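Posting this for the archive.
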Amino acid sequence: MTRHNFLDTMQFLEELEKYLQQDNNFFQQFDWWFFSKIDETLDEVYIPYYQPKTNRIEKFKPDFIFWFKKEKDYAILFVDPKGTEHADGYRKIEGFVKIFEEEKEKNGESQPKTFSHNTLSVQVKLLLKTTDRANVLQEYQNYWFKDIRELENLMKIPS
């Protein structure tokens, strides 16, 4: 991990910690939630995506994974706060969409696939952190956040 990526990760953790101290934060609506830092050397968690620079399928390993449970709804959120270069970010998003989202609807928005596990309905979401959402292409806006307070609007957890 480069120094820049380490600082982005630490900044995200600091923002999360401050946000969790606020009353009525997004996380309080759940029966329970957890998160973990994904260890690239130990964890086999990744999202495959096509990388035209190498003409290969690469492994996108987001930094964090969150689990949220509310009644019979379960959501998994991958978060990558490293502020990746947008073109690479778009390719990673496309890899995610192919696995975890339905075909785009007439309004142009993809909908999360719902997976069933025992009595749970499970959806998976991906969010990447950027310093300026205005520079993100319109069709990818729902995958990028600048501030942790944006999670509530971007998550769209079923209720």
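The chain has three helices and eight strands. The radius of gyration is 16 Å.
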